[in-house]
Request: fold
Amino acid sequence: MNTYVAFPYHTDGRGRTGEATRAAWLHGLIEQLLFTVPGERVNRPDFGCGLMQLVFAPNSPELAVTVQALVQASLQQWLGHLLRIDAVAASSEDATLTVTVRYTVLETQQAGEASFTRSLSP
Reply:
């Protein structure tokens, strides 16, 4: 049986590392990848998606397309050994960017979906 570390990291009531289900662990991995800026991790300077670098970009359909391509490429590069990326949808409405990732877990062939919403500055 595999043990999955919870994200964000925390300790449980017994003082041990918090555990997560496989689905919650995968959701956390995707979230970490999407919101880590390349260069932010010391031993993995290429890790990350760069999504947060677009926070100050004007919100538009073009931004949504850029986000979709950026997310798809990053997920395939960094999590392609765990997931098959089935679809990435990005939409912008008013000052909000929503990214939804549909994937299949390679080990179990189970489908999953993760959705993230962040507000953008005008």
